[in-house]
Each structure stands twice: as structure tokens, then as C-alpha cells.
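Hey,
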Amino acid sequence: MKTGPGRIAINEVGPRDGLQIEPVFVATDDKVALVDALSGCGFARIEVTSFTSARAIPALADAEAVMQRIRRRPDVVYTCLVPNLRGMERALDSGTDELNLVMSVSETHNRANLRMTRDQSTTQLLAMLERARAAGVPCNVSLSTTFGCPFEGEVPSSEVARLAQMFAQAGASGITLCDTTGMAYPTQVADLCASLSACLPASAPLTIHLHNTRGMALANALAAWQAGVSRFDAAAGGLGGCPYAPGASGNVNTEELVHMFESMGVETGVSLVPLLDIVAKLPGLVERPLPNQLLAAGPRLRSHPAPGRYTSGLD
């Protein structure tokens, strides 16, 4: 089997992407406590919130308060999503370490999600990259519907490459390929990651953002890793989903991603035991059940007492 990098970096997106569509508003104190707890698990990055309109995403209306109140660790990059220049200024004023910009590769999803044409989004993102450069803050660009659009179907890989190269040349510190509705499959992921890695500069590394809508998130993560990708978005407990993507379910599950890679001997830097403790409390936070096979079964080497009939009579 072809192998990938011996160490990967995980960007925990649960506090932003995970909470943005939850029907129950999570209190600001609880959001801050969640980020602080995640900060102790060893994540390379944590996407804390989104500086978007409170009308559009009421679940994240407290973005400033959360970003300003978290306890920052020097070894963690605290990022946030910004949909426009106004959101960027709010994020900069709040001391965000890294900005994440977004647009869709497909026209229909971009209009639904951002209320703009792709040309309008492109113009805006280029202006935002310029503003971020002036502020000295790194700026990642996430491309939604990279692996398929729920409205248009297949998305040309050539268009993904065109946008990725354009934003990388404009100064993006990274490019994220988003499987917005879980339409990706492993060979598709491997091919696109390999081709883009070959044409993008080292200054704009790839991240992959996967959803488990059709149960292929871990398989797709493995395919991306085999193609050389070392940066992954994931959400604790598999929280999340796009509010403008019909049928989209949660993100790839962080603890399952960590468990898979660590079992393979790939370092993640994330401590699984404290992460599982956080995941166990998430159903209470969002006030709904979150089925979790890993939490129920435990890591693969968790041991159990042997049945009594095999131990009776032994010293």
C-alpha cells in the first residue's frame, strides 16, 4: 500500500462548523469552555467561530465574545471563518490568528450559500487576501463543493484547480478542498489531491474537509493521506453540516480520524483520551443524542476482564 506523511495536523472545526446548524443555541460560556477543553488535546488548529451575520447564522451570534474570552495556548492556531470584508474586520479586531475564507466552485451553491455569483465572490476574496496581507494575518481559502454539488452534480476538477491556483498566487496561506455534502469517493479524492499538490506552491498546502453523509469520510481521509495530504479538518463527535446543502450530515468524526491514523502509526499530536471525555459531554451540550461507535467500544486495545468461566480456579 502506498503510504503518506508520517505526521498529520488536524484542524478541529466543531466549535464553528459543528455548532452552526444546531437548533439549540449553545451558551457563550459553554462555547468558551468547549474551545478551552479542546485546546488541551493537542490540535494544530481550532476553528473557533464565524464572523457572519447573526441573522444568517444565529448559532454563532456571539463570535466576538467567544474569540476574546478563550484561553489561548501558544501551540494552537485559533482560526475563524469570515464570509466578507466586514466579517474580516471584526475577526481582525478580535485577534484571530488565521482567517478562513470560503466560496463554492459551483455557481448554484455559491448563490445559495453566499448570495453572490462566483465572479462576485472571486473579486471579494482577492480583496480580502490583500487586506489580510496588509494586516499580516495568514488567510486560508476553502473551496466548497469541490467533489460535487447537490444542485449541479459533477464539478470539473479543472475549475477546482483554476481557483486554487489563482488564490494561491494571490497569497492564500493554504487551500482547503471541501466535500460539502459528502459526495466524494476515494479514487476521486486521491486523484484531485495528487494533481493539486503537484501544481500548488509549498506556501499554500492542501487541507481536506470531509463530511460523512454517505459513510465514506474515513475512506476518503485515507485516500487523501495516501496522496500526500497532511492537513485535515474534522469535528468532535461528527458534529456539523452545511445549512445550504440538502442532505448534508456531519463532518468527519475527529476521534475516529485520530484513532484510525494513530492505529496506523501516523502521529496526529492529539490525545485521544481527553478528546473522548469531551465527546462524551457533547450530547448534553447540543441537547440531542450523538451515536458514537468509538465512544461506545473504546480504542481498539481497550482490554476487558475475561469471562468468569475462564478465570475460576486460577491463582
